[in-house]
Design goal:
The complex is a heterodimer of chains A (about 325) and B (about 400).
Chain A: E1 2-8, E2 11-17, E3 26-30, H1 37-45, E4 52-54, H2 67-70, E5 73-76, H3 88-98, H4 103-116, H5 132-144, E6 150-154, H6 162-177, E7 181-186, E8 197-202, E9 205-210, H7 212-220, E10 223-229, H8 236-239, E11 244-251, E12 254-259, H9 262-276, E13 280-285, H10 290-313
Parallel strand pairs in A: 3-7, 3-8, 5-6, 6-7
Antiparallel strand pairs in A: 1-2, 1-4, 8-9, 10-12, 10-13, 11-12
Helix pairs in contact in A: 3-4, 3-5, 4-5, 7-10
Chain B: H1 2-23, H2 26-46, E1 54-59, H3 70-74, E2 81-87, H4 90-98, E3 104-107, H5 112-117, E4 125-128, H6 133-170, H7 179-183, H8 200-230, H9 233-239, H10 244-272, H11 282-306, H12 310-327, H13 339-347, H14 349-363, H15 370-395
Parallel strand pairs in B: 1-2, 1-3
Antiparallel strand pairs in B: 3-4
Classes of the chains: A alpha/beta (about 325), B mainly alpha (about 400).
Chain lengths: ~325, ~400
Amino acid sequence: MSAVSRRFNGLWAVRDVSMAVPAGSILGLIGPSGSGKTTTVRMLTGTLRPTHGEARVLGEDPQRFSRQVRERIAYMPQLFSLYEDLTARENVGFVAALYGISWFGRRGRIQRALSVVDLWDARDRRAGDLSGGMQRRLELACAIVHEPQVLFIDEPTAGIDPMLRRTIWEELRAMRDEGRTLLVTTQHVAEAEYCDRVALLADGALIALDSPDELRRSVFGGDVLQIDADRPVDPQLVANVGEVIAVQQAEPRRLIVTVVQAGLAVPHLTEAFRTAGVGLTSIDEYQPTFDDVFAELVRRQRTGKEQAAESTDG
Amino acid sequence: MGDLWRSLVRITSFIGKELRETLRRPGMLFALVLGPFLVMLIFGLGYTGQRQPFATEVVIPPDSNLPRETTFYSELAPGRIQVTAVTDDAEAALQRLEDQETDLVVIAPANASAQLRNGEQTEIGVAWNQVDPVYDGLARLAVSTMVSALNAEIIRQAAAEGIDLAASELGPRVENLSPDVIAEPTTATTRNVAPTEPSVVNFFGPAVLALVIQHLAITLSALSMVRERLSGQIDLFRVAPVNALEVLTGKYVAFALLSLLVTAVVGALMILVLNVPLLSGYLIALLIVLLLTFASLGVGLLISLVADSERMAVQLAMLVLLASVFFSGFVLPVQDFIGPVQYLSYALPVTHGIALLQDAMLRGTVTEPWMIGALAGIGVVLYLVSLLRMRTILRGTA
């Protein structure tokens, strides 16, 4: 999508978003509630027209999808949108038939789709009787029953417990491994870890688009190391070591050190501790949580906006 | 061929889904099938069609030679009035009428024979106390019948006096004259040439059936579409390779099958249990039911286009039901309405459905064939409107 925007009643829900999703990957569209994730997905599925900009899915404008392209995409909406009076199997069968799969071809696919989401044993239970997590998985089964090439999945883990969230993400990654392209929205920032690329949205704007590791690097300026000592340690001990960008005291005996490149920095840091006569307990790569990454990116974006506004006023 | 096959698969997906969803609600199905039949059964068993005769007081002036027996006056309009008292106190009788102790007061003229002999018209006073327009009309009818009979009695008495007088003057030439013939020179021999005996159950049975078919089709289609629009299922259709024609055709076929199922069960119960005749045979009845369903589904889909909640859809469906009861000829004849209101009547599918089903079942023929065309016309127009709207919903993005 290129410079896509959407306005509702004078307010911008999505502003000037440009991005591309490589085939056979998972793009996580991550942001808090109201950040424009669902609006973006709806524009990409053709259910919402952009106010400005251009979108393409499988080479076609979503507003004018051909039947052939429609047969190759799937959409799992945010809200439970299946038929509560139909069983799990009937719901999946209905969606399969919507995609033109005949009764004979349908049976195997229904079994496969329900098995993927671990619902085959619940196939004859009515959708309305399933738990919230099972309903989301049933919707996922409906989305994959016609074996689409591109999947738009809106908030698959909303309201789901952490264990089940992991299971769902494992299922999504398995689909990616089969060569499918997935665009998945979530407001759980930590789920960025499961994606190949992450697009962070805040207030309708795209504030970052990269792989999870690169996003971390871009936020912290390099690799991050966690150093534990056998006694309280002064950050100044490593502040002047080559390769070190920043030092932060996490605890009296623990330092969080940002370095240009971990591999080159570790020998220098070890030497600095040895020279100072401080025992090293461990040096490990530190993985800042994606909550930290997201918070920092949003803070930077808002600071940038304020500075821009001030310079305009000045 | 592949596209056509896939299109058929999509259509059948909607047929199967709608049928399963409806049949999974046994309570609703029970109400749909047995409800109308039970209503008809209770109506048929409990409604006699005979109204209570009006409690009537007759005031005969003291100097009148009219009879003073209550049975005499009750027999003037049998079944319509029941004379509770004959009195000479008009004021007291009118007070009892005002207090609603009686329904009617008839005040005979004073000295009617003398006035008649003098060539003067006499006047019978009648008063009643009704706010119900139906009973007001019935009171007028009862009064008309009674007054005619009373007039005949007055003429009979005057004629008897005249014949006696003429016989004394002219002898046997007038002796063969009868006061009864002079008072009532003709009597009527009546017969109803309709192929079925008029009965409340027979007459209202087809009407109830038509009303049930329309209400069923409207409610099912309106609720189904509104639910899908509001709960996000429509988003699945928007993304899927399904078009408006396939969605609508699937729904129409499903609801037509449900309608036929309900009609078959309710109709069979009416014919076999309540003995409502079906003179036309099944084919014509089936055609009428299908056309009525087709047109009614269009009304339901029209409602689903304007309703923004299930509650509103139900309310609008009930509004159509109410309009149908009043304007369809179910209770009041369509011809009794002024011209513009008749257009409203004929815009309702059930108006044609009732007339056609009553004709087919009770007369064995269709006396107003244009109504078949009208039903088909309403159905086609509403189908096209629904199709255009569905296309906008599916492909015309927000």
